[in-house]
Amino acid sequence: xxxxxxxxxxxxxxxxxxxxxxxxxxxxxxxxxxxxxxxxxxxxxxxxxxxxxxxxxxxxxxxxxxxxxxxxxxxxxxxxxxxxxxxxxxxxxxxxxxxxxxxxxxxxxxxxxxxxxxxxxxxxxxxxxxxxxxxxxxxxxxxxxxxxxxxxxxxxxxxxxxxxxxxxxxxxxxxxxxxxxxxxxxxxxxxxxxxxxxxxxxxxxxxxxxxxxxxxxxxxxxxxxxxxxxxxxxxxxxxxxxxxxxxxxxxxxxxxxxxxxxxxxxxxxxxxxxxxxxxxxxxxxxxxxxxxxxxxxxxxxxxxxxxxxxxxxxxxxxxxxxxxxxxxxxxxxxxxxxxxxxxxxxxxxxxxxxxxxxxxxxxxxxxxxxxxxxxxxxxxxxxxxxxxxxxxxxxxxxxxxxxxxxxxxxxxxxxxxxxxxxxxxxxxxxxxxxxxxxxxxxxxxxxxxxxxxxxxxxxxxxxxxxxxxxxxxxxxxxxxxxxxxxxxxxxxxxxxxxxxxxxxxxxxxxxxxxxxxxxxxxxxxxxxxx
Amino acid sequence: xxxxxxxxxxxxxxxxxxxxxxxxxxxxxxxxxxxxxxxxxxxxxxxxxxxxxxxxxxxxxxxxxxxxxxxxxxxxxxxxxxxxxxxxxxxxxxxxxxxxxxxxxxxxxxxxxxxxxxxxxxxxxxxxxxxxxxxxxxxxxxxxxxxxxxxxxxxxxxxxxxxxxxxxxxxxxxxxxxxxxxxxxxxxxxxxxxxxxxxxxxxxxxxxxxxxxxxxxxxxxxxxxxxxxxxxxxxxxxxxxxxxxxxxxxxxxxxxxxxxxxxxxxxxxxxxxxxxxxxxxxxxxxxxxxxxxxxxxxxxxxxxxxxxxxxxxxxxx
Lengths: 530, 317
Description:
The complex is a heterodimer.
Chain A: H1 2-5, E1 19-30, E2 33-44, E3 48-52, H2 59-66, E4 74-79, E5 82-84, H3 89-94, E6 97-100, H4 112-116, E7 123-124, E8 127-128, H5 130-143, H6 159-172, E9 177-181, H7 189-204, E10 208-213, H8 216-222, E11 225-230, E12 233-239, H9 245-253, E13 271-281, E14 287-297, E15 301-305, H10 312-319, E16 327-332, E17 335-336, H11 342-348, E18 350-353, H12 357-361, H13 368-373, E19 383-384, E20 387-388, H14 390-403, H15 420-432, E21 438-442, H16 450-465, E22 469-473, H17 477-483, E23 486-491, E24 494-500, H18 506-513
Parallel strand pairs in A: 3-10, 3-11, 6-9, 9-10, 15-22, 15-23, 18-21, 21-22
Antiparallel strand pairs in A: 1-2, 1-4, 4-5, 7-8, 11-12, 13-14, 13-16, 16-17, 19-20, 23-24
Helix pairs in contact in A: 9-18, 15-16
Chain B: H1 2-7, H2 10-35, H3 43-61, H4 64-88, H5 93-116, E1 121-122, H6 136-139, H7 144-148, H8 153-171, H9 173-183, H10 185-190, H11 195-219, E2 225-226, H12 233-244, H13 248-269, H14 275-296, H15 306-315
Antiparallel strand pairs in B: 1-2
Helix pairs in contact in B: 2-8, 2-9, 2-11, 2-12, 2-13, 3-4, 3-5, 3-11, 3-12, 4-5, 4-11, 8-9, 8-13, 9-11, 12-13, 12-14, 13-14
C-alpha cells in the first residue's frame, strides 16, 4: 500500500481548502425503512473521496440524493460553497456533477461515440454528424487517458471499456465532480488498477472524485478521505492515511458486535458435505470461486462470513445446483452433485433456505400450504398417483404453522400478506420439516425483526443438535458468532481462513475479511478433514 | 428445360416486384414499431382499413392521391388508438392488435353495406386508381423495360422508402431515439428521451406507411375494394419483422422472398403444382432463422483448465 502513497497530493494546510460538495443533515426514509439518517459529510475539491459501508448501509441512496434522483426528507446540499436544490439529474449535471451508475446504461448496438453523445447529438443539416462525434470522443478519451475506440460497437466491448464510455459520457457533459457507484464491482483487478490511475488523473486536473466501494484494499490504496456509513448513519470521515484496513472493518461492521453465544452440546458427526477444489464463474464469466475446499459434518454449524460480494452468493448457488461449477467436485451424503440440477441435489439431501427469499424462497401469490407443498408434490403421502392430497397438505401446514410460530390466519393465507419474518418462517418450515441431512441457510434473518430472529436462530440450533450438518452464510458477523461452531472467512472468492468460533475475536475475523492473512502459527489449515 | 424457361423469365421478376410492394410498404411501417420495442400485430387491420378508406377517398376527391391520403389518415387513427392503449394505458399489445384487426374486418364489411349497399366488394366507376408509369430512358432498353418500368407509382415508392427509412434510422436523431427506446428504454430515459413519446411517434409513422400499403391494394393494379383484401400481408410483414429485427435492408430481402414465393405460387398453379407448398417456403425460412438466432444465444458452460486456473492466480493483486 505504501507505494500508492507516493502519488497522493500532500495536503497543504496553508491554502484555503474549499469543499466541492457538502451534505448537511440529510435524511431519507422509504416507508418504515430509514435509508439515510442525519447524514453530514464534506468532500474537498480535488480529492478522491471513498464512501464505504456494508450493503444496505445507505451509500447508494445518499449518492442518488446528491445526483437528484431522490429528494431528501430533510437536509441540505452545498456545492462549491453555495446551497443548492438538486431536484433532477438534469439539474445535477448543470451543477457540474456526473454519475456513473453501478448498472451501465449503454445501448449495445450503438458505437461508443453514439453512446457518448446520446441525447446531445451533434447534427449537421438535420442529420447526425457522426464524424464530429467520433472526433470529439477521441479527443476526450485522449485528454483523460480513457482508451476507447469511438467507432467500436458497445456489444463487442468488455465491461471495463463500457465503464470508460460511461465515464466519457459524464465528462462530455462537463462534469467537475465524478461520482462512481461501486465502480470496481464489475472489473478485473487490472481494469480496476487502470481505473484508479484514471481517477487520479482527474484529481490532478482539479476535478473531484467520489466513489462508493466495499472493497477495503482499493479504498486504502486509492482514496484520500474515507466516509464510513453504517445503518444509514455516518460513522466517521477520516483521512485514509490515518486508517488501517482493520479500523475500516471495525467502523463498517460496528465496534461492539453484540451477541450471546448459544450453548451447545459437543457432537461428533460424520462428513455430510464435502467441497473439493471448487471453481466457478459469475454471471459475467469472471472467476467467482477459486479453489474452495471444505467439509461440513453432521451436528455442526459452519459459518461463512465475508464482506458481501466475495463469492458467498456463488458458493450457495453451486452447492444448491443453481450454478455450474467450472472445476471441482461436491459430494453430498455420498453422492456427487456438482453437475446436478436443483432437483437432484435436493433428493441427495439438501434443504435450502435461499438468500433471495422473494425470488427463490416462496411463491408470494400462493397460499402457505401451497408453499409448504412445493418440492414434494411427487412424494407420498403428499400426493398419490399424480393427485395432490390437499387434506394432508393442509393438516401438515397447520401443524407447521404452530410449530414454527408463523403469525398467519390459517394454511390458506396468501404468503404475500405475511411480514418478512413470517415469510422466512414459511421457508424454514418447509425446508426444515424435510429432515434432510444437510441444511444450506443463506442470510436467514435479513430484513427480519428481532423477535422473529430469535425464533429462527432457535430452529437452526435445534436442527444442529438433532444431527444435521448446517452451512450458515451471513453478512451479519454477530449472527455467525452466535450460532457457528467453526467460521470460514471468504475473501475474493477464496477461503481466506478458518477460525474456531469459541475462541475467535472480531479483530481476527475482521482482518481475514479485509484480505489479510493471520500469522502462520494462528492459521489452521483449511483442508484439515480431507 | 422448356418448362423451367417458361417459369423463370423476366415476367417472373416483374411479378415478384409487384407482389413484393404491398408487403414491403407495410413491413417498412412495422420497422418503426419494431425498432421502438412494440410488437405490432395490428398491421393487417391498419392496411385493410386504409384500403377501404382509400377507395372512399378516391371517390370523394376524384383523385388517387386524395384516396391515398385519406387511407393513410384512417390507418393512422387505428395506429394512434393502438399506441394510446398499448403505450399510455399499458394494455397487452397482442390483444389490442388482434382486436383492432378484427374491428377493421368488421368495420369495412359494415361500411360497405351501409354506404354502397353491397356485400363483398366495392366496384365503382368513380374510383380513380393509379396508372402505370413508364420511365422514358429505361423503356428504350430491351429487357430492362419489362423489369424496371411500367409499375404504378406506389411500387416505386415502396422501394425508394427502403432507403428513406434507412436514413431515418441511422442518420437522424429521431431514428436514433426510436432505436434506443426499443433497445434500452432505461438508457433513453436517463438521457432525457421520453420513451412513451418515441413509441407514439413510431406507431403513427407505422400507420402512415401501412396506410400507403392499403391504398396500393385498392388503387394500384385493381381499383376496387374487396372484403379482407389485405389477405394476410400484414401478418407476412410481422414474420419478416421478427427475423429482420426491423432492419430496413433485411426487411427488403425478407419481403422479396415472400413476394417471390407469391409470384411463383401463382405461376406454378398453371402447371398443376401445389402452390400451397411454395407459399410455405418463406415461413419455413422465418422459423429456421429464428431457431438459429436463439440457438447462438444459448448459455454456455465454462470449464476451467490448468491454464485458466493459473491465469486467475497470477491476476491476484
